[in-house]
Write a structure and sequence with these properties.
Layout: H1 6-33, H2 42-57, E1 63-68, H3 71-74, E2 84-85, E3 92-101, H4 103-108, E4 114-121, E5 133-139, H5 153-164, E6 172-176, H6 182-190, E7 194-198, H7 202-210, E8 218-224, H8 225-238, E9 241-247, H9 251-259, H10 270-273, E10 280-285, E11 296-298, E12 301-310, E13 315-323
Parallel strand pairs: 1-3, 6-7, 6-8
Antiparallel strand pairs: 1-2, 3-4, 4-10, 5-8, 5-9, 10-12, 11-12, 12-13
GO molecular function: fructose 1,6-bisphosphate 1-phosphatase activity; metal ion binding
Family: Belongs to the FBPase class 2 family.
Binding site for substrate: 101-103, 133, 178-180, 200-202, 224
Length: 329
């Protein structure tokens, strides 16, 4: 076995540490939001998660700038776009946060709520300039070079089924359950595929579509632009495909976006959404999701389950933490 260059190990060590440090921030947000599960107050749940995530991010060895945050979308005073996070001692980073992806899921006690952070090299995350929605398509590695957001959904379904070696009837497509998707849902079913309608949790739907071991083959439809950028960090680690086109809610938003130089016809690929090949995706379950369990009490401990992905190495780690709530920090 050849000797490993010690300098190479030293060079990558801070990045490895960063990935593990970020878990503490998503764990904190998930744990602090759990008292609000099922209590019908999504703003209280989100406020608790934001406060906890921000407090723990302040201890992380990085010089981060929030580029996808809470403030502009949710009128929140913390974790806003442009806020500096981290202790300032580490690498310069773009940071995307979603303390709760699925606030309504949390408030109603439904499965699929996550606490999420994505981090990449400074200046590498796409700036949507307050265009809050994007038409997206996400698939796993089999979909690379096969599916295309510009094609009709039926054509994409048939192409994906062929490359996967399955019947079209075996394909499952995740779509947010919204009136704007009524025709899309009808077209998916008309093509012979099944749907997995998502109440909320845009990030989880995309990540599941990119994973090889989920029951989802494709995720399509109009969802959050910030969530699309966060999902792209996971997709790059998973080797899948993500495409998006900006979608305006009204004429005023469209005019602002055009004035900022955005092109609504442009198809944004993974490298457009996150140009860095050294990015991280970290998620902790709040309520049970397909790939992580929600926070639960186990005797004197509270258990949190997280997933950490790094695009540079393609590493995916599952982390289970049992913590004493009386001593946890």
């Amino acid at each position: 076995m050849g000797m490993t260059d010690p300098l190479s190990l030293d060079e990558w060590q801070p990045d490895r540490n960063l990935a593990m440090e970020l878990v503490r921030a998503t764990e904190a947000a998930a744990m602090r939001s759990t008292p609000w599960i099922g209590r019908g107050d999504k703003n209280a749940a989100d406020g608790a998660a934001v406060d906890a995530m921000r407090r723990f991010l302040a201890t992380v060895n990085m010089n981060g700038t929030v580029v996808i945050g809470e403030g502009e979308k949710d009128d929140a005073p913390w974790l806003y776009n442009g806020e500096r996070v981290g202790n300032g001692l580490g690498a310069d980073c773009d940071v995307a946060v979603d303390p709760i992806d699925g606030t309504r899921l949390t408030a109603e006690g439904r499965p699929g709520a996550l606490s999420v952070i994505a981090v990449a090299d400074r200046g590498s995350m796409y700036d949507p300039s307050a265009v809050f929605y994007m038409d997206k398509l996400v698939a796993g590695p089999e979909g690379v070079g096969v599916v295309d957001i510009r094609k009709p959904i039926g054509e994409n379904i048939r192409a994906l089924a062929k490359v996967k070696g399955v019947d079209v009837s075996d394909i499952r497509v995740a779509v947010l359950d919204r009136p704007r998707h009524d025709q899309l849902i009808s077209d998916i079913r008309e093509a012979g595929a099944g749907t997995r309608l998502i109440m909320d949790g845009d990030v989880a739907g995309g990540v599941n579509a990119a994973r090889w071991d989920s029951g989802i083959d494709l995720c399509v439809g109009i969802g959050g632009t910030p969530e699309g950028i966060i999902t792209a960090c996971a997709v790059k680690a998973l080797g899948g495909v993500i495409q998006g086109r900006l979608w305006s809610q009204d004429a005023e938003e469209r005019e602002r976006a055009l004035a900022a130089g955005h092109d609504f016809d442009r198809v944004l690929e993974a490298n457009d959404l996150v140009s860095s090949d050294n990015c991280y995706f970290v998620a902790t379950g709040i309520t049970d999701a397909d790939f992580v369990s929600g926070v639960e009490r186990r005797g004197p401990f509270v258990r949190a389950e997280s997933i950490v992905m790094r695009s540079h190495s393609g590493t995916i780690r599952h982390i289970i933490s049992d913590m004493d709530p009386n001593r946890w920090d």
